[in-house]
Amino acid sequence: MPTIKYLYIALLLFCKFANAQTNIKTYIDKNGNEVTEKQLLVNNKLVYETHVIPKFIHKPINPDTLIKDSIWIVVDKSDYKLQVFYKKKLIRKYLAVFGPDRMQDKCKRGDRCTPEGWFTVVEKHESHLYNKFIGIDYPNDSTYLKRLELLKKGKIKETDQPGDHVGIHGIWKKGNNLIEKKVGWTDGCIALRNEDIDELYLFINKGAKIYIRK
């Protein structure tokens, strides 16, 4: 019986530590800073970590003063963020949403996933559905290399196409609440609030680089 008792206690401790490994809490504090608190199990000891990202303040920018070749975009799907960098400095941060399963890389047409990797802006125009559209060069050479790997692994069929017409756009009028609630509603594109796509549209020209990651 003592052996069973000790096994039971060990199981409880294991469950406690296992849960601690996945205990991550992120919130916005009273000053607008993004705070992430983590509990990690390191060498059988609980370690507490706190990371604070200062509140980003949007400063007025005249798009005409920017060297457009020095602008690029980083999209973080896990954090629902689209960030704009100018000469390696963060100048804008926007809330972004994706398709229903945002953490999956795009494999084929119709999977409603957002592709990951490096892309280039190839078009921009007004959109009667989604305000404005900034298109990227998906599928590109990297897409077809990934496609070969997916075919080898049997994850897609020869008849599956990669899809196209992927980019960044806004939303219909009075639809911003879907963005703010982080609803995954797109077919693989990146959606911003209308005021944000209006501003981004002024910053970005054809040829701008975009990196999309999990």
Question: How does this structure look, described?
Answer:
This protein has 214 residues and is α+β, with helices and mostly antiparallel strands. It folds into two domains: 2-53, no CATH class; 63-213, L,D-transpeptidase catalytic domain-like. 22% of the residues lie in helices and 34% in strands. The protein contains four helices and eleven strands. The protein has helices at 2-21, 141-152, 176-180, 194-203; strands at residues 23-28, 34-42, 45-53, 71-76, 81-86, 89-97, 117-127, 131-136, 167-169, 190-192, 209-213. Strands 4-5-6-10-9-8-7-11 form an eight-stranded mixed barrel. A three-stranded antiparallel beta sheet has the order 1-2-3. Mean pLDDT is 86; it is low at 7-20.
Keywords, please?
single chain; 214 residues; alpha+beta; L,D-transpeptidase catalytic domain-like; 2 domains; three-stranded antiparallel β-sheet; 11 strands
Blueprint (SSEs and pairs):
Layout (H helix, E strand, L loop, with lengths): L1 H20 L1 E6 L5 E9 L2 E9 L17 E6 L4 E6 L2 E9 L19 E11 L3 E6 L4 H12 L14 E3 L6 H5 L9 E3 L1 H10 L5 E5 L1
Parallel strand pairs: 4-11, 9-10
Antiparallel strand pairs: 1-2, 2-3, 4-5, 5-6, 6-10, 7-8, 7-11, 8-9
Query: In percent terms, what proportion of residues is strand?
Result: 25-35%
- Our count of domains comes out at 2
Q: What percent of the residues sit in helical stretches (DSSP H or I)?
A: 10-25%
> At the third CATH level, what is the topology name of the largest domain?
L,D-transpeptidase catalytic domain-like
User: What is the tally of helical segments?
Assistant: 4
Number of strands: 11
Return the CATH class of the largest domain.
Mainly Beta
| CATH architecture designation of the largest domain | Beta Barrel
Could you tell me how far the N terminus lies from the C terminus, measured between alpha carbons in angstroms? 49 Å
CA-based gyration radius = 22 Å
